[in-house]
Specification:
Blueprint: E1 2-5, E2 11-16, H1 28-40, E3 58-59, E4 72-73, H2 111-124, H3 128-133, E5 146-148, H4 158-168, H5 171-178, E6 181-182, E7 194-195, E8 201-204, H6 210-214, E9 221-224, H7 230-233, E10 243-246, H8 247-256
Helix pairs in contact: 1-2
Length: about 260
Amino acid sequence: MTKVLNLKGNKTRKDVTLPEVFTTAYRPDIIKRAVLSEQSKQKQPQGRFPLAGRLTTASSMGPGRGTSKVPRTHGKGSHHSGRGALIHSTVGGRMLFPPSTEKIIVEKINKKEHKLALRSAIAATAQKELVESRGHLVSEKLEFPLIIEDSLTEVSKTSQLKETLESIGLGEDVKRCSKRSIRAGKGKRRGRKYRTKTGPLIVTSDDSDVASAGSNLLGVEVVRLSNLSVEQLAPGGDAARLTLWTESAIKLLETEV
């Protein structure tokens, strides 16, 4: 039995019986594999036009002319004449090994194995030691898993959601995510100046106004239970993300997962 919290962070008189999914064994190896499988499905197949780099008239002049036997373009009085073409070592030539759309880029995983990874990632959110070892900052008085009343779904303003998270004891973790760190040196990625930390995950039973309120808080993510993925519970393959469950979402876990 677990107590349900209200919007002020106080325990209510309601008791919730945890579903059987929270008794699943912690399997970080299967969770990591399921996350890699989900990430591979987001990739887009790449290919090249079969005649790319070959749409030109060029031929080799052969040996005995003091030049290499590279195919060269034909013409008179043009700066393009005599220029190397067709092969991969020339400017504008074909690629040596172009990417193929037939390449298998999706890492397959069995349905039962993926379901076990999802259940194991859900069970990891109830272990406070794992949550703290992942880097989340939580109050010492909190008991896991974190369950809150369904009135949280009625919160539509970001300021109200931020006050609610602070009253529960998750304010320090929200502040931790609001501080962006600049990736310097070798760790810097192209097209990404800042590195945003991962914060609390709010799981609801259906679509609600709290999703728009949480979109303005860095690191905070709101997801519907039916759309819950292993990657959201274990970003980067590291399980035990700080997760806040609504009361109705807990009741639907037995049938949805």
